[in-house]
Amino acid sequence: MKRRFVIEAVMAAIYGEIMVPNRPVEYLLPYSTVQELYDMKENSEPVMPDPADDAHVKKKILEMIAFFEDSFNRKKIERAFPAPWKTSLPLVVNENVTFLVVNSIENAQYGETFDPIETELLLTSLREQVPILTDQLDFLERVIEHEVPVQVFDIEDFEYALEADEQVEDSKTT
Question: 22-53, pLDDT tens digit by residue?
């Protein structure tokens, strides 16, 4: 069974381990997070505090941009543009990882507490009924504090998050 998560595109560049899971994973990426990669490419601000890590992540961001700009992948993404909340066809990254780009629409539903990208992550999670994977602890805390009805995993708990649905399924069958 394929495990699904909502994530920001940059997380795939920063956290290489999520790109080599031990089982099939499908990542739902709000399109605005794909656009963020271009902002990061143009921005001279460091993404990571360590210069060597920063250079590595910026290289991975460029590779990810090239992946999304590949004509085959770009066509799949563009097909999702005509309608809000339409999802692209799967973009195969490797044998265990696929991306789905979501034409998410930020509607300010959580605008007082969450920024537009966070809101899109929340709305995508709610709409698709899949957990969010994040490295932003303050975001995770605000989700809990404001009782937003989504499941959120810290990126440090990725291995646990991969197995969390199996534990639920196992308990249903016993």
Answer: 999 999 999 999 999 999 988 888 888 898 98
